[in-house]
Amino acid sequence: MLKEFKEFIMTGNVIDLAVAVILAGAIGGVVSGFTNDIMMPVIGHFTGGMDFSELKVVLSDAVVAEDGTVTTPENAILWGKWVNALINLVIVGFVLFMIVKAYNKTKKKKEEAPAPDPGPSEIDLLTEIRDALKK
After folding, report:
1. CA of 81: how far to CAs of 34, 78, 87, in Å?
2. Residues near 85 by Cβ (< 8 Å), separated by ≥ 6?
3. Domains and CATH numbers, the chain
4. pLDDT tens, N- to C-terminus, the chain (135 residues)
5. Residue among 79, 36, 39, 74 at smallest CA distance from 55
6. CA-CA distance, 62 to 21, in Å (whole number)?
7. In whole angstroms, what is the distance from residue 91 CA to residue 83 CA?
8. Region of residue 131 (phi > 0: left; psi between -120 and 50: alpha; otherwise: beta)
């Protein structure tokens, strides 16, 4: 059983998957940084300085004690963070599209083999049969 597990782990597909997961985590961090630190400030600038991550609908305010400690935290729908996540998704999708498009350009196109000769048509065969019967 240990030998079978070793063979399974050492197959190319499992190693490729592990590398892909690690790279996806690294790329996710880069894309999140790009989205939050570069794109969102630009979008916020064009929307009048709005920071999407702070947008929310408060369902119930926080309850603060007399000494200033929060006894019950605020309950809110953080829809601005969701907008950030959507923008992040669009950026990731676009980056992956560009990577796949560049990869497809680098692959050599296989020259299509010429179509095999379809052979004589039905009419040609019937003509040959007719000529053979005449003889």
Report:
1. 15, 6, 10
2. none
3. 2-107 (1.10.1200.120)
4. 888 877 777 776 777 787 888 888 887 788 778 777 887 788 778 877 777 778 888 888 888 888 888 888 888 898 888 887 887 788 778 877 888 888 888 877 766 667 777 777 888 888 989 989 888
5. 79
6. 39
7. 12
8. alpha
